[in-house]
Amino acid sequence: MIDTHCHLDASRFDPDRESVVTRAWAAGLHGILIPAVGPETWEPLLELPRRDARIQVGLGIHPQFLPDLPAEDDGLHLERLDALLSKGGAVAVGECGLDGPSVTGAPLERQVAVLRGHLALARKHGLPVLMHCHRLHPALIDLLKTEAWPEAGILMHSYSGGAELARFYIQKGCHFSFAGPVTWAEARKPLDALRVIPPERLVAETDSPDQAPTPFRGQRSEPGYLPHILAGMAHALGEPVDALAQRTTENARRLFREAFPPPSR
Prior knowledge:
DNase_TatD-rel_CS, TatD-like, 8 strands, Metal_Hydrolase, metal-binding, hydrolase activity, acting on ester bonds
């Protein structure tokens, strides 16, 4: 099992990060992908895969953090990101994307411009994109209709846009990841979307420390909870958990260019 989206560097893990990682391996995980949310985290994150190849990272600027950064520095941040990606060590570009609630602090025009920059870097460096989209799917679709496509692909992280929107992203070749909400009692849209995703485009995540699955809902999530998410996905799809876990692991390894080593025997 590979957790394709886990903010293990978040401050909520500061008290027990090492124990969280130990629990993840004990739960059967083979890999964890940590997406950056802002420029100040890029160098520290790049140190992690050097210590443990089971932990890989993506580099980018989360749209929710744009209001904390001066708009006039966006170009400089993207230039620095380009330089870091040129050195290797990251397996993806992101987390990046569009965020509706952030529009008041980071206008849509700015969010789109920064996302275009991320997509250009993904094309240049041959890396997949970890895409965030919350309440701005029409704007993202408009952008993706005109933007050159990253050859390595786009992963729609914690997808919640429903089945109809998913069909556009499927046609464009996107991968999809699902988190804790697929286990929640009231889940409808993510389950409807899950059922139309091509099997070879499906992966799983925890989005830790947020979106904890049942029975941990309301608590801090962690990568060791991934088996609960896979169980929820398997139940919705009507297939064995083990088969889904194996397939999503293989899909993740293929998407991230075999970055995660297979388990030692």
